Amino acid sequence: MKIGSTRIEVVIADVKAKIATVIYLPGTRLPSVRAAAKNHSFSPSTVVEAYERLQADGVIYSRPGAGFYVAESTLPLSLADIAPKLDRAVDPLWVSRQSLETSDNALKPGCGWLPPDWLYEEGMRRGLRSVAKGSASVMSEYATPLGLLELRQLLTRRMVGLGINAEPSQVMLTESGTQAIDLICRFLLTPGDTVVVDDPCYFNFHALLKAHRVKVVGVPYTSTGPDVDVFAAVLDEHKPRLYITNAAIHNPTGATLSPATAYKVLQLAQSAGLYIIEDDIFADFEITPATRLAALDGLSQVFYIGSFSKTLSASLRCGYIAAPTAWVESLLDLKIATGFGGGQLAAAVVLSALTDSGYRKHMNAMHLRLAKARSQTLPRLAKLGIVPCLLPQAGMFLWCQLPDGNNAAELANACLAKGVLLAPGNVFSQAQNAEHFMRFNVAQASDARIYEVLAESLD
Amino acid sequence: MKIGSTRIEVVIADVKAKIATVIYLPGTRLPSVRAAAKNHSFSPSTVVEAYERLQADGVIYSRPGAGFYVAESTLPLSLADIAPKLDRAVDPLWVSRQSLETSDNALKPGCGWLPPDWLYEEGMRRGLRSVAKGSASVMSEYATPLGLLELRQLLTRRMVGLGINAEPSQVMLTESGTQAIDLICRFLLTPGDTVVVDDPCYFNFHALLKAHRVKVVGVPYTSTGPDVDVFAAVLDEHKPRLYITNAAIHNPTGATLSPATAYKVLQLAQSAGLYIIEDDIFADFEITPATRLAALDGLSQVFYIGSFSKTLSASLRCGYIAAPTAWVESLLDLKIATGFGGGQLAAAVVLSALTDSGYRKHMNAMHLRLAKARSQTLPRLAKLGIVPCLLPQAGMFLWCQLPDGNNAAELANACLAKGVLLAPGNVFSQAQNAEHFMRFNVAQASDARIYEVLAESLD
After folding, report:
1. In CATH, what number does B3-74 get?
2. pLDDT reading at B137 higher than 90
3. Model pLDDT, residue A456
4. Which of A169, A359, B225, B439 is deepest in the core (most CB within 10 A)?
5. Contact predicate B412/B89, CB 8 Å
6. Is the interface score ipTM higher than 0.90?
7. A119-356 belongs to which CATH class?
8. Among all residues of chain B, which has the CA nearest to that of A92?
9. Is the pLDDT of residue B90 over 80?
10. Which residues pair with A217 in a beta bridge?
11. Closest residue by Cα to residue A140 from A334, A308, A341, A337
């Protein structure tokens, strides 16, 4: 090895070591060639050569006239890097980003929420006006650590209707349903733990769990809940710490947990010491309440969470956790440490809108409107050979199989190019075996253009 | 060893192993004596004895008639357990909890925010009314991932006044200033990293960093910023990843970063590849703007954050990050994964209140009001021998030395018993060497009862 080559490698090793020990972070500008040469007492040409090799390896990149920078891909907590890269069309974060970024007028049958004019706009306006006239404290002050008492009391009364007995002191308000889940995960999980999810499941669970750097194992979801035999085998083999699932109307399948499955799942969880997050954000869409794990369990190992973004407003951020009593204090400490106090304002608007007599009427009208949208969407999809795996009792989703020979990710890419955002099966699937499935939101599926684009793009 | 004793130890070891491997979490109910006896094929009396020994050791506890439960203290992410336990009076979380939990009428000169009637109530009411009449989209929909464009544009214009040049595409709205810091920490830090803070510093930084399980090193804060020599030595010795500091009016000291110190700190940080979070939540209290690290650095290694909870309302949750361009995309992914979309509503109310012509008048009046409160508080404290370490140019805090022979934590405990919440020095101090100091909030210090209680309690 020539001396020149050794010196170049010294510079390369030095840069790589600083990246590995996170002294240089992605986006860090490297010392200038002149400065690095001086530091090492090498010639500038040695440094130029070293930087060029690092650049060729993708470790750094240059900006003309501005120097060299550490490349993004070395990011320690790039969510994209923790798990293998997926096709953008089946990357859960990409679907979230697309849904959030596309304009109101875009066609997005793959979107996970209702169009704004389906939400409780009038109740929200009334709630805002009432808060605008209300107490200075609600207007200006931090909430107590648990959050607005009146809303927590209301939530416990609503839970009673689902068979869940919680004290207001067990209910903690959060900034959103997602933040509620994240907070519990921060509390329960350490990197390397194993978490069970349904396969398919709400795709943001995958993104969230990546951020926690845990191992994720999927259990096939049937029309009555998770496959109990697989669930038992997974507990045996993987000793998971946590199971995250949707209550009531399952996302994306629209299936309903049966009492027998709920009972078996809970029995297995209890004997394995497995904790459960039961995410019940679609509760108010139900017509007949299904069994809740939190009801059977009595909030002993189940954390029950909810929010109002699917029915009242996604613009007003407010979620909640009903937690086992023993955990409340520690969750509160974590909430304060990572977000400080909550506000009273969002909670007060939610309280006003939920207690207002119009809310029940609004939801009754919503049930009918969704049933109608479902019955209109089904034949339009059927004409294209797209068939639901089951007929949901309620909610906005249809989990459908594509006609033979069609790949959901390819179809989603083709349709996106024509302005239609779809939600291909594999964004929901841990095992990545849902490539022939697609989730449709019937409330976002009325425009005839969607079916034209689908027809053009299907094989 | 008797066989009986061995069997007891088998049961004990089994329970302890399940706790250690987090199969049993705190609050988990242990199998009943009968069930455990059956599992192990031991007699019930063996299990009873094992459970009693575990209980005597504090590993489990019993609830009469309800069985045995794993004790709280074995909690994996109990913030209290990650660092050594402090006297409750100097536990940062305890001061936060007390401040958030005490009623509006309590005397809390230790509180970190203004009384509600000092905030911009009229602007908030106007903002809420205007949103209540505004677009359905603001009322109902998720914001785009970065958050409301008009507010981000306004924030960049405000930053220009401080010499910080940021594009609206570098500004990301968050649920609060604390959440902004937490998000950056999640992104930058892994457990075991080292973080530098000012000593003293805002006490919630300690709580937040505990939740990230990092090593924290303090650098003494002088009247012009951190002690530069110690700062340099800390970078050398500990190779920290991040420095978190307050911009402008330092909490708790009220000191102002000088241009010379800012320059040196930034130079040291840049050559060490150290990232900085500059928390500027007190910006609008300044009369003459001090130097910002983010301005000198050009948002290359500095993350600049702010919120509106100290001036507009703590009830409306909205904060922001101005981040180095290279980091924005990954921060957005993390924000979506852990909190999904933000709302438009809080941002719209903030936008309305800040652009409303009354805000500047409100803040001008606030400056005068604070100056008056400061001039009234100083002689009242001086009469008790409590002397500020420096006279702040602005803001609400006075960082004071107690008369000889007084310990701040003891004084805080004594005063709390008499209904006065204080903020003793050591809640702010990493080195725990501020036992003779106390932070007073002049806006919360007008009541004569405070000085009576202090006089009674001082040695």
Report:
1. 1.10.10.10
2. no
3. 95
4. B439
5. yes
6. no
7. alpha beta
8. B337
9. no
10. A196
11. A341
Residue that is written with structure tokens 């409160």 in the block: B373
Backbone angles phi, psi at B247, to 5 degrees: -80, 165
Contact indicator for A447, A454 with CB cutoff of 8 Å: no
Res B20: pLDDT: 61
Spatial strand order in the sheet of B275-279:
B171-174, B319-322, B302-307, B275-279, B242-246, B194-199, B215-222, B225-226
DSSP letter at A403? P
- Residue B359: enclosing H or E segment and its boundaries? helix B358-383
In three-state secondary structure terms, B157 is helix
Q: DSSP secondary-structure letter at B243?
A: E
Kindly report the nearest CA distance between residue B382 and chain A, in angstroms: 31
Q: What is the dihedral of CA B171, B177, B182, B183, to 10 degrees?
A: -20
B74-88: per-residue pLDDT in tens?
Answer: 333 344 443 333 456
Does residue A257 contact residue A290 with C-beta atoms inside 8 Å? yes
Segment of A63-67, B100-104, B196-200, B428-432 carrying the highest mean pLDDT: B196-200
Q: Is A254 left (phi over 0), alpha (psi -120 to 50) or beta?
A: left
B269 has pLDDT over 90: yes
pLDDT at A53: 86
Q: Which of residues 399-418 of A touch B (CB under 8 A)?
A: none
Strand (E) positions, A200-283? 215-222, 225-226, 242-246, 275-279
pLDDT band for position B423 (cuts 50, 70, 90): very high
Per-residue pLDDT, A413: 87
CA distances from B253 to A92, B89, B200, B260, B351 (A): 45, 19, 8, 19, 31
Of the CA atoms within 13 Å of residue B19, those in its CB half-sphere come to 22
- With residue B34 as reference, give the H or E element that holds it: helix B33-40
pLDDT grade, residue B5 (50/70/90)? low
| pLDDT at residue A453 in the model | 96
Residues 274-333 of B with CB under 8 A from A: 275, 300-301, 309, 313-317, 324-327, 330, 332-333
- The predicted pLDDT at position A252 comes to 96
For chain A, which ranges sit under pLDDT 70? 1-5, 17, 20-23, 25-26, 72-90, 102-105
Strands B242-246 and B194-199: parallel
Q: What is the 3-state secondary structure (H, E, C) of A330-392?
A: HHHHHHHHHHCCCECHHHHHHHHHHHCCHHHHHHHHHHHHHHHHHHHHHHHHHHCCCEECCCC
B117 Cβ under 8 Å from any chain A Cβ = yes
Q: Determine contact: B28 vs chain A, CB below 8 A.
A: yes
Q: What was the pLDDT predicted at A28?
A: 77
Q: Please, are residues A224 and A258 in contact by the beta-carbon 8 Å criterion?
A: yes
Which residues numbered 78-97 in B keep a CB inside 8 Å of some CB on A? 78-80, 93, 96-97
Q: Do B204 and A314 touch (CB under 8 A)?
A: no
Query: Given CB atoms, is B345 within the 8 Å cutoff of chain A?
Result: yes
Residue whose token pair is 């490297």 = A30
Supply the pLDDT for residue A4. 47
The alpha carbon of residue A445 and the mean position of all alpha carbons in its chain are separated, in whole angstroms, by 22
Q: Do the Cβ atoms of A187 and B144 come within 8 Å?
A: no
CATH number listed for the domain at residues B121-356? 3.40.640.10
| Gap from A312 CA to chain B (nearest CA, Å) | 7
Residue B298 has pLDDT above 90, yes or no: yes
For the domain spanning B81-117+359-457, the CATH number is 3.90.1150.10
**pLDDT for the residue numbered B104:** 62
Query: How many residues are listed for chain A in this entry?
Result: 459
Residue ranges per structural domain of chain B: 3-74, 81-117+359-457, 121-356
